[in-house]
Amino acid sequence: MGLVELYVNFFITLFALLDPIGNVPIFAAATRTQSDSSRRWLIVYISAFAALFLSFFFFTGLGLLQFFGISMDAFRIAGGILLFLLGLDMTRGDFLSMFEETESLTEETLDAHGMPLRGRDRAKKSFEKFVVPFAIPLLIGPGAISTVIIQAGEAQKYGLTGMAVGLGAIVSAAVATMLAFFFSGSISKLLGRVGMVVVIRVLGLILCALAIQIIISAVSVITHDIIVPAAAHPYSGE
Prior knowledge:
Blueprint: H1 3-18, H2 20-30, H3 36-68, H4 72-92, H5 119-139, H6 142-155, H7 159-181, H8 184-222, H9 229-232
Helix pairs in contact: 1-6, 1-7, 2-7, 2-8, 3-5, 3-6, 3-7, 4-8, 6-7
């Protein structure tokens, strides 16, 4: 596998796992009370965080898991549990309330002069709510982190050049995510709050199923395929 193929495969896989297109409705619903300026800055912060977080695991992930004695399958199971809990919140609770700001003004929503925070300052405050659960584990899940660690092993075969190409793929995926989220405002206006709630409930159900599948696949590996292979890896043609 050459450097070009490494870049293309890494970028496509990572973009699919981040799934910014699928997460656009959730982001749009969660930021419907934000101004356009604040939303744009929030998109930049989330994308930058994704790039930095994935880059960190790209360079240190495998060594970090080895240091703590954590296997990749154990990591997948833990991530699957987090995704499942998040999916439950999306399907049965008012998921949007954890992101939206209340109408009452508090010290956290006022600047030093007692004026409401706007634009970049408001985005900084909102980002604190978006780190968990939106950025992690909804956007950056165990699959994305696992892929970054695995691809780091492939990139190391090409030395510094390979690592630079891998880093470029991560940055490219983060930029593509940023561009996708820029359309969230239009989607929010198109669907309205009721439409967003419906979309989030459906996505929550899908997320729960995805989390269960991640756990089943990891348990299948740990137990040496005691679980039926067709259940652990559906649609694989095996």
